[in-house]
Design a protein that fits this description.
By secondary structure, the protein is α/β, with parallel strands linked by helices. Helix 1 runs parallel beside helix 13 and helix 5 packs across helix 7. Helix content is 35%, strand content 17%. The longest helix is centred in the last third of the chain and has 26 residues. The chain has three domains: 318 residues, P-loop containing nucleotide triphosphate hydrolases (Rossmann fold, 3-Layer(aba) Sandwich), CATH 3.40.50; 200 residues, Rossmann fold (3-Layer(aba) Sandwich); 72 residues, no CATH class. The strands form five sheets. Strands 2-3-11-4-10-9-5-8-6-7 form a ten-stranded mixed β-sheet. The chain has a seven-stranded mixed β-sheet with strand order 13-12-21-18-15-17-16, sandwiched between helices. GO terms for molecular function: ATP binding; helicase activity; hydrolase activity; nucleic acid binding. Keywords: ATP-binding, Helicase, Hydrolase, Nucleotide-binding. One of its GO terms (biological process) is maturation of 5.8S rRNA. It comes from Chrysotila carterae.
């Protein structure tokens, strides 16, 4: 460790941290297997389940780890042994009517489709596009492991020089495809751009690619390193800005990799992906890496239509490391298996967990989950440690909760002496890059004691150098427990053996709700390290009651389809109009939004025609008389309103406005209900006189009526159950 210290300091001072192999193996003992269902036998965290055990022998579905078919078991069962995973069934996909593609199925683990521009003739069965070359070795790059079928298919598309979309589970190995494209481009003296949605992922990819390829640069909003490199890693916004400026790099690039392209559904930033894909020249080829999305073909067809070239769609249904999902009720006695690697949802176990949560002790413990003194968090961390289910990522849905939960681990045993020295070395080198004032920041001082115990915190509120420090230490096995917000799950290649959720609800800016199935997939997918773990373990801390169907939708639901977030912004229009080559009309007409509407137009038109036919069939012989009746009814309503307005004039109504009278307050379409009259006054605050002449003289002005209206106790400005309101008469 001491010998490696100068190299680490130099690496950090150059704008990045790369401990590389210096600390490889530190604090990385052999990961023991969990035998005989030991997770539920801990002295502190025990699983109290009915003694009845129902043996389950279900074949796995395509996504065995998630049970996408929604299968369930209503039998109560004790946690069983961790069984081995069965081989996935062969996928079966039929060609959809009217689909401009011919697809074929590759046995067992993946599908291959070819998306063509809209209105293109279908491909013939012997078209070379449908038969990608599958090889055991490739000239541009060799791999020290056997490639999966979907990886070979994607590389075959790259060898052909075609764009490709790879949709696969987290940690399935999508990055291999991008690595091969980079190697092939470097061999051909071409440049590559690798884009990611967040800076943290860009930093990680830069470090990762720099270890494989020599000529790699980084461009983010914080730092630029080797910007003339053949391989440039950047955020998607940086690429978009280059396109608007007409940067010379765009003319030199052959491949553009869009990592985590499913982020395009983001309401705020998703439009950036659309702008980049539309504005990039058609000579450039694309590699899209995405989590599984149900409308991957629709997205690929849009890309093919934009650039008038085919785009391959490679989808894999195989998760390399199956998952088991457990529930841990606050204040309860143990863990409950909610869904095994067979994809079966255990309804009875869920009900038992909810019953344990309803006890008074559980209600008290639930409120303390995110605090520094949470006994449940301490018990769970201890259980994970004893069962060798580390490293573990603990996801919290707020910075405060992540930091509070991390403090519950402050009493854990420290790392061994060698690991502590390694942590200290990297920490000192990272802090040395900060100014003297920044080194005094509170989060700097609080981080090191936790790191010495193998505990770390990661959220957007940390200094960039601290986030990168945590990422490096986690990758090197020096962090046992990482308390993070959900942004950590966005593409960072940092799997763990276990993932823990501190809550079943999150604040989305408008309301508290359970995570969507897509969000849950993204975070829980970090459990299970390929090649190291037979299974990944996901533990959901049940801090409040949740409906079974709601929880099941989160656990077993399918990912949301990609929906366009395209919108025209003022700065976008200004950039487009200031450019000599970019046209606003092209951006709108070629957007994914327009493509989705155009693609669905025939079905919408057919539905409209069907409704028109239904309306025609419902016509009766008395249609004319019914129409006349409705016309008379409308006339009566208009006269009634006119009469009511006349009667509400001050000259007629003021004499009836006595304090204590009940009034019905209606403002436009809002009915406030009944109110108690307190009094009224002239709009100009002149005293009210009840004689007829005064009333006639004052009818040309409005009157303000003060009333008491019932309102909610927590409504804005309310201190009692009623308030004084004023309305014009």
């Amino acid at each position: 460790s001491a010998a490696a210290q100068p190299d680490v300091a130099e690496a950090i001072s150059n704008g990045h941290i790369d401990v590389g192999a210096q600390f490889a193996g530190a604090n990385k003992g052999e990961i023991g297997e969990v035998e005989d269902g030991e997770v539920h036998e801990d002295d502190e965290v025990q699983t109290e389940m009915p003694s009845t055990m129902v043996e389950q022998n279900h074949p796995r579905s395509g996504d065995g780890a998630r049970g996408s078919h929604g299968r369930s078991s209503d039998a109560q069962e004790a946690p069983t042994d961790i069984d081995s995973t069965a081989t996935p069934a062969i996928a079966q996909v039929d060609k959809e009517p009217g689909k401009d593609v011919t697809s074929h199925i590759d046995a067992g683990s993946s599908t291959h489709e070819v998306a063509l521009p809209l209105n293109s003739p279908p491909l013939l069965a012997d078209d070379p596009l449908l038969h990608l070359p599958i090889c055991d070795s490739y000239a541009a790059m060799t791999f020290p492991f056997e490639l999966d079928l979907f990886q070979k298919q994607a590389i075959g598309a790259i060898e052909r020089g075609d764009s490709v979309l790879v949709a696969a589970h987290t940690s399935a190995g999508k990055t291999v495809v991008a690595q091969y494209a980079i190697a092939l481009s470097l061999a051909r003296k071409q440049r590559v751009v690798y884009t990611s949605p967040i800076k943290a992922l860009s930093n990680q990819k830069y470090r990762e690619l720099q270890g494989q390829f020599s000529d790699v640069g980084l461009m983010t909003g914080d730092v630029n390193v080797n910007v003339e490199a053949s391989v440039l890693v950047m955020t998607t916004e940086i690429l978009r800005n280059m396109l608007y400026r007409g940067h010379e790099l765009v003319r030199e690039v052959q491949w553009v990799v869009f990592d985590e392209v499913h982020y395009m559904r983001d309401k705020e930033r998703g439009v950036v992906w659309e702008e980049c894909i539309i504005l990039l020249p058609s000579e450039i080829r694309f590699i899209f890496l995405s989590a599984t999305i149900p409308n991957a073909f629709e997205f690929a067809q849009w890309v093919a239509t934009c650039h008038a070239k085919p785009c391959h769609v490679i989808t894999t249904f195989k998760r390399p490391t199956p998952l088991e999902h457990w529930g841990f009720p606050a204040g309860g006695d143990g863990l409950y298996l909610l869904q095994g690697s067979d994809g079966v949802f255990r309804e009875a176990n869920f009900n038992c967990a909810m019953s344990a949560l309803r006890s008074p002790s559980s209600q008290s413990a639930a409120a303390r989950i995110g605090s520094r003194d949470s006994p449940d968090m301490k018990r769970l961390l201890s259980a994970l440690e004893k069962r060798q289910l580390t490293p573990a990522i603990i996801f919290a849905f707020s910075r405060k909760e992540a930091e509070g939960a991390a403090m519950a681990a402050r009493d854990l045993a420290p790392l061994d002496e060698e690991s502590q020295k390694a942590v200290q070395t990297v920490f000192d080198a990272a802090v040395a890059t900060l100014s003297r004032d920044d080194q005094e920041i509170r989060q700097i001082g609080r981080m090191l004691p936790l790191l010495r115990r193998g505990v770390a915190v990661h959220h957007s509120g940390l200094l960039p150098v601290l986030k990168e420090l945590v990422e490096i230490l986690f990758q090197e096995g020096l962090v046992r427990y990482l308390f993070a917000t959900e942004t950590f799950a966005m593409g960072l290649n940092m799997p763990a053996r276990a993932v823990v959720f501190t809550s079943v609800r999150k604040w989305d800016g408008e309301t508290f709700r359970p995570p969507t199935a897509a969000e849950y997939i993204q975070m829980s997918g970090r459990a299970g390290r390929r090649g190291l773990d037979d299974k990944g373990f996901v533990v959901v801390m049940l801090t409040e009651e949740i409906e079974q169907e709601e929880f099941r939708q989160m656990l077993c639901g399918s990912a949301l389809p990609l929906e366009s977030a395209f919108r025209l912004r003022y700065n976008t229009l200004l950039k487009l109009y200031s450019s000599e080559t970019l046209e606003p009309e092209r951006l709108v007409l070629q957007s994914f939004y327009a493509h989705q509407r155009t693609r669905h137009e025939p079905s919408v038109q057919a539905e409209l025609d069907e409704l028109k036919s239904l309306a025609d069939s419902l016509r009766t012989p008395h249609a004319a008389r019914v129409a006349e009746l409705f016309s008379r009814h409308a006339e009566c309503a208009a006269l009634r309103k006119k009469l009511n307005d006349w009667g509400m004039r001050p000259r007629y109504i003021l004499r009836y406005l006595q304090p204590g009278r009940l009034l019905r307050i209606i403002d436009g379409t809002t009915d406030y209900g009944w109110a108690v009259l307190l009094g009224f006054r002239h709009e100009l605050n002149r005293p009210i006189r009840a004689d007829a002449e005064t009333l006639e003289a004052q009818t040309a002005h409005d009157y303000i009526v003060d009333v008491l209206l019932p309102c909610a106790k927590d409504s804005h400005g309310s201190t009692t159950a009623s308030t004084t309101a004023s309305t014009h008469t």
